[in-house]
Amino acid sequence: MIVIKNLDKRFGKIHALRNLNLKVKKGTVHGLIGPEASGKSTVLRILATLMRPDSGAVTINGVPLKKGWEIRKLIGYVPKTPHFPPDSTARELVTLAASLHGIRDKSIIYHIIRQRGLESVADQSINRYSESMKKNVAIAMALVHNPPVLLIDDLTTGLDPVSLGSLKKLLSSTNKTVLITEKDFNNIEGICDSVTVLRNGSTIVNDELASIRQKVGKIALELKLYDVRQIQKLIFELEKESVKVTASGDSVFINFNSEAEIPNIIRVAANAADIKEAKSMKITIDEVFGTFNQEGIR
Amino acid sequence: MKISEFSTGFLFMLLYEFKRVLKGSVSSYLWFAVLVYIATYSLFAESYMQSANTEAPLITLEYGSEAMRMIILFFYSFVISSAPGVLSGDVPSLAFPPEIGVMFFIIVPMILGLIMISKFIMKKATVIIAREKEKKTLFITVSSPQTRPAIYLCKFIAVFIIAIPMILYFYFITNWAFTGLFPLQTNLSGVVFKTAIGTAMLFTSIGMLVSVVRSTEEKAVKFGMKIVILMAALTSLWIFIPVIELILNLTNNSTFFLMVLEKITYISPFTMDLMAANHPGLLADMFNIQLIATVIFLVIGIVIFIRQDLEY
């Protein structure tokens, strides 16, 4: 469990974190969402004891941040863009990370390298690795001591779709407490149990992702039709269901009031027209800011 | 974390740092070995001259001016011979007094060796943290259960160990020079060994402090090198103070400021080393001063490192 109370951090004149409060329940995945320079990486760096807060209290599994070496034993930290000494290999680095935790069992190192798909390149120089492979090395190093808390800075940066998929799978099946940062709401879909949206170091909203989506009012579908001539009929049928419908080209956009309406609307649409493609509309950070600025910080 | 786990991590980290620091050191070792060897071997010129045909002219170029030829011959003879012999016009004995030989050893191979060790150490120490901060690789160790003081000490030990082969070589070559050239004089190999250890420790701690406070590798190395050059310059000044005093006395000028100047030159560890070589009785004090200074710089460096924010 991660508890952050009134966390404040300044870098000279820049106020990076303003009185931040956050609670991540044990065994859950929490997302810190925000644009660049919103303070999300600073939160992770403070939790990883790379930085010192100016004020505030932080505990991880009940251990205060002041007990740095105990904290670092509990966490696995994955930086946004990991950098490694040139000419080192994945095996050397994972072995080093294991040794720094007092682990000498080679089978653990072998297992984690295999799990991150680095087996075939484990003894090659890191200079020849892609960004995705480097991030996988950092993830392997963070996981090698099986920490109860995982901190991942910028989940999707640098990771290829296959590695991202396997990581998402790992996160959804793990019982670890995970705190991840991300710029885009849509990248954490299906991973995070809850999210905190940050802007300029302040909390804009702290809630479950579905709840935020509902508050933003962005429960929407885009339907593409085979035959443009069916659009008028489709709009007519959908408006009977009291949903807001707009059309553009061969697509129809439907806004819902609640997720419960979706199955019925899709059934109505399928009866009224031949649907080529249906996809959910993406929520943007600006829309979240727009909504929650009007309502005030919650 | 158990002590055994912590010490395993510490030893592995030390090995890791040592391997990284060792990279690119071979050429420095070779340069050190060659230059110190040449500088020391040049003291054996006396033996050469004794076996050489002294009847043969030393300067044969006919277009050289006669006066300049005489000046060169005079200085050459003066350096390798006893001064009264040369001045009285006797045939040069081609043997300088052993005390002067020892002095030559102190101001040439010894100071050269110490400066080379310090320069080498300074470069390694200034790079060790600044490079990691710049390249953003420090997270590997800093986010591990190892504490920052342990990481700092580990790097300090790794850099210091790298200097050990140079120090040992320096010790053996000094021993060789003294047993071969000045067997009746006090063998300075022990003094050289201890002063080299003290100086290496001190420059390692200074270099690491520079490495912690500077943001890039280039800035850190430049600053570190400036420190070594400044220290070497102060010691050179210390060596030349008697010459300055002589000139000032000959020209009836005040020499009072030289006392202050001399005290300033004591800041340089090289001056301390030379003083210890001249007066081995001072060795323990000089070593202790360097040790205390090392600890002070080390503690300051650790405190700054602990309080430093690291960005990734």
Any chance you could write out the topology, listing elements then pairs?
The complex is a heterodimer of chains A (298) and B (312).
Chain A: E1 2-11, E2 14-24, E3 29-33, H1 40-47, E4 55-60, E5 63-64, H2 68-74, E6 75-78, H3 90-100, H4 106-115, H5 131-143, E7 149-152, H6 161-173, E8 177-182, E9 194-199, E10 202-207, H7 209-216, E11 220-225, H8 231-239, E12 244-248, E13 251-255, H9 262-272, E14 275-280, H10 285-295
Parallel strand pairs in A: 3-8, 3-9, 6-7, 7-8
Antiparallel strand pairs in A: 1-2, 1-4, 4-5, 9-10, 11-13, 11-14, 12-13
Chain B: H1 3-22, H2 26-41, H3 45-51, H4 66-80, H5 83-87, H6 98-135, H7 139-142, H8 148-180, H9 189-213, H10 217-250, H11 256-265, H12 269-278, H13 283-307
What does this structure look like?
The complex is a heterodimer of chains A (298) and B (312). Chain A has helices at residues 40-47, 68-74, 90-100, 106-115, 131-143, 161-173, 209-216, 231-239, 262-272, 285-295; strands spanning 2-11, 14-24, 29-33, 55-60, 63-64, 75-78, 149-152, 177-182, 194-199, 202-207, 220-225, 244-248, 251-255, 275-280. In chain A, helix 3 packs across helix 4 and helix 3 packs parallel to helix 5 (131-143). Chain A is globular, with a radius of gyration of 23 Å. The relative contact order of chain A is 0.14. Chain A has 298 residues and is of the alpha/beta class. In chain A, the strands form 3 sheets. Chain A has a 6-stranded mixed β-sheet with strand order 6-7-8-3-9-10, sandwiched between helices. A 4-stranded antiparallel β-sheet of chain A has the order 2-1-4-5, covered by helices on one side. Chain A folds into 2 domains: 2-213, P-loop containing nucleotide triphosphate hydrolases (Rossmann fold), CATH 3.40.50.300; 219-280, Alpha-Beta Plaits, CATH 3.30.70.260. The longest helix of chain A is centred in the middle third of the chain and has 13 residues, at 131-143. The model of chain A has no long low-confidence stretch (mean pLDDT 85). Chain B has one domain (3-307). Helix content of chain B is 78%, strand content 0%. Residues 52-56 and 91-95 of chain B have low confidence and may be disordered. Chain B starts with a helix and ends in a 5-residue tail after the last helix. In chain B, helix 8 runs antiparallel to helix 9 (189-213). Chain B is built from 13 helices and no strands.
